[in-house]
Amino acid sequence: MVAWIVGGMLCFAGMLFVASFAAARKEVVARVRADFYGGSQRVYRVHKSPLEPWHPVYERWIRKAGSKQSAASVERKQWILALLSFALTHVLTHGWMLATALAVLGWCLPLLQLRGAVKKRHRDISRQMKTFLLFLRLYVERGDSPQQALEHTLVQVDGVFRDLLLDVLALMRAMTFAQAMSYLAEQVDHPELSTVAKLLRQSSQYGAPMVDKISQALQELSDNEHDRMESLKTNARQVVYFKFLLFFVSPIVLDVMLFLWGMLGGVFHQF
Hints:
The chain is mainly alpha-helical. The chain has a domain at 2-120. The protein has helices spanning 2-38, 55-65, 71-93, 96-141, 146-153, 159-171, 177-188, 191-206, 210-270. The protein starts with a helix and ends with a helix. Residues 37-47 have low confidence and may be disordered.
């Protein structure tokens, strides 16, 4: 009964969204044409989608992932995959529970892909951040300008991080290196990149040498890496202790308790 209700609600919500979106689009097109030819200045609002309150969260994830899609397109993928999963599974298996479970999975799949893209992008940045700072400091110490140092450093990085640095180079046509890095940090929302951008901004504001701030950023990254490794060591040690207790100490304690229970049982039976 619950599966019927959930499946019906999913189908109804999906069909309602598709129908309302199509109707809203036709209405807007018709009224824009009427306003264009009739000279009206009225503004019309497109109907809301069911998940529109969550669109800011979607947009933040899209920005972090560097994707070109919109929040509305992500929502459309969710409803389409949910409806297709439900319909195909029900037709092939005639099972409402399985169809509902796969519909929920299909609904979550675009969000999981988006979150996976964000994590992959952040891993790529973290993997190459220290290399980027080391070579950037080397070229700045040699006397290169920030733009020249960044151009030379591009050879040492690859993947997503290289694309981000190319964006920084493009931004430096209209702003300083510190401003471009700050803008990039706001868009990507990566903690290490935010630290570097903050230190570069301080160097620009207070006239501190850029080399010193880059060295400070390297030191902070090294300290964070050391803290992370210490945390991993502590967690690994706790796991070893837990396994020792679970597979060695616990059976011995259980055997002793069973032995004592047997002895006490024999003594009670004698009386």
